[in-house]
Amino acid sequence: MLIKIHSDLKRHVRIHTDAEPYSCRHCSVCFTWPDQLKTHLLKSHNEGTWFTCDICQKKFSSKGYLKVHVQRHESVKPYVCSECPKRFCTATGLRDHHPVHSDYKQFSCGLCDRLYKRKRTVKRHFKKCSVEHVVT
User: Fold this and answer.
1) Is 54's pLDDT higher than 90?
2) Is-above-0.70 flag for pTM?
């Protein structure tokens, strides 16, 4: 991953260090990202403003999350895969889709060493695998 700006690099490093620089002033719970703290303050301490979907009344902690949610209602999918006709509401959705087109498996189970293309798939496998390893 190419990081061009120092602040982006500092933010990216948190992924690898488990740093939690954002702490709640009410209960001192810590978070990696500022939006996690904002959501915590809204849910746990009723501090801040919710953004509500006019269509289904679901509440969001930021305008950005609400915007993406509304796009789903409207079936707006501006992100198109360059290798197949699939479309996505978010750039993250498109990025998470790309491993489908590759044989590269970068995620491994820490218990049985099976390899997977997607992080969420290895997480799902790990839950099952850890139960099997406890039983046997």
Assistant:
1) yes
2) no
